[in-house]
Amino acid sequence: MKIINITTYTSSSKKNNNKTYYWNGFNKLGYSINEYIGSHKYEIRDAYLSFIENIETKRSEKLSIKNIFYNNEFHNFWHMSSIYEKSDNKSKSISDCIKLIAFERIINFEKPDFIRIYSDNISVAKSIKELCIKKNIRFKINYKLTNFFNIKISSLIPNLFKIVLFILKYFISCFNLNKKSNFIPFKNGVSIFSYFLNFKVIKNDNYKLFISDFWSNMPNLLLKNNKKVSWLHLGVDNKAKNNFNSLINNNKEINNDKSQHLLIDNYISFNIFFRSLYTFIVISTKTILMLNIKDLFNMDKSDINFFFLLKKDWIRSTRGSNLFFSIIISKIFDEILSKLPHQKIGLYLKENQAWEMALLGSWRKYNHGKIIGIDNTSGYLRYWDMRFYKSKKFFNNRKNNLIDCDLTGVNGIKSRDLLIASGYPKERIVEIEALRYNHLTEYIDDKSNVSKNNKFLLVGDYEYDTTNKLIFDFSKIISSIPDISKISFRPHPGNLKTNKILSSLSNCNINISKQTLILDIIEHDNIIIAGSSSVSLEAYLMHKKTIVYLDIKNLNTSPANAIEGINFCSNQKDLLNAIIKGTSISINKNDIFWIDNNLTKWKILLKRLLSNKNLDEI
């Protein structure tokens, strides 16, 4: 009788004499699911993408998922769901779904008679159990009960209580009467949709100029072409409204005859709130009454069912915070874009998030001009960041064009080639300089900032758990690293638990950085980045010894995954070895990004967009 083991534990202790596959991490003493995925990444990723795109066509009783979430021809709330979005920051089980696809393929190859399941993850164990039953394979599950005491308190709170609090927050925000700036929209202008984050205001002649780190000097090209710019900012936290009002009150000159600013969050009203609440109740009721929900998660031509892994995402998407946000942001965009004079061009940061689907629908609903999604950082270098990719058959359906921008701007050769290889229409790809990294020009070719001062910079991730584990593991190996002269920590600006992280550092000899990212990278010669932060690319381009510290439970979504010369690790031992060993870096910046202070590619694109040429000519 052939027996194999599958374990979600990271320990390499031998369970028995049978072949053992490790669900998490890379284990040299057994067989790694991650290594199998790496060898079959193209077909496995496309299989999952196809599964996600097929859900909307599946039916419960007489209605398909697409029909249940239909609002109008421009907005379908399913396309804004966390399941459809595929963000590993919001949907925590995507990596496990990918691993389940890989494990079924392993089973088909191994043809075992019996599978022993060692798991501290109930959802994974149930999913493998379901797979074994369908394949008529005997199995035994061994749970590690002690891990169940580490369940987060937030996961125990009923969804009904969570959604009531979430909705109540929006209701309270309706009372903010002093909320709209003196926004005067421009006809036939350019609208830039961006996060209200990472910006500065500088004085320029007789007025003040708003500079966004996301967009760098590109807006100046528009002004030089006599195009007026409307900035539409999206808040990232609860402080956004107060911070925006302070910005406008203290810098009234940034609203002038060349540029205007508004905060999207400020446009909520009682009317929008109650219409959104009604729509939410209607859709939620329909999904609660659905029968055979589990069947929706069957994968075509497979024995896999993803229900146990995606159940929480389903609840958020059908009667939780994700659904209510999708509804209300769509109505807010309708409110703004219905009153905005015709805009010739729209530009936004493309990450395929829910608010972007809402924006695209409202933009087209009110007949504005071309809209271009910009990969402003390194999205397409993140092979396993599912947000950035669709299945190869997705673009064969012209109706899907409604949930994508007219053009996608890519900022480097690798990104362009990866996007084309995924099946994205080549004619809808335009080349642009990497605005986020363009300021590095003077540092890339200058090796004078390369030093051996043995200073370490720890860079936090958006995810709290990944950042916290890096800090914990690094603190355990500090005594084994010779001649450390300084340790600094730089939190991620979007991490809402930064204060909790900082409090954990109070007993460590780690400095909290308060200077700019560039100065941080220049000062330190060892840069250790938690998770998927794109700081890894900046450190690499500035000739620094760069290490990326990964969460062992997730796939590698770091943009540095596409680059040789960067060390990856996920435990204390490998981290220490990477620090001591170091690495040699040979850089060809053009392999990663197009960087040019003159923004030549941007000038060509804007010239064509501002002309009266048809889209096919661009």
Could you describe the 3D structure shown?
This protein has 618 residues and is an alpha/beta fold. The protein contains 22 helices and 24 strands. The strands form six sheets. Strands 14-13-10-15-16-17-18 form a seven-stranded parallel sheet, sandwiched between helices. A six-stranded parallel sheet has the order 21-20-19-22-23-24, with helices on both faces. It has a five-stranded parallel sheet with strand order 3-2-1-8-9. α1 crosses α5 and α11 crosses α12 (321-339). It is globular and about 80 Å long. The model has no long low-confidence stretch (mean pLDDT 88).
Distance between the termini: 63 Å
Residue fraction in strands: 15-25%
Helix/strand structural class: alpha/beta
- Number of E strands: 24
Shape: globular
Low-confidence stretches: none
* Rg of Cα set: 25 Å
Mean pLDDT: 88
Strand order of the largest sheet: 14-13-10-15-16-17-18
Biggest sheet: strands, sense, closure?
7 strands, parallel
Please give the share of residues in helix.
25-40%
Number of helices: 22
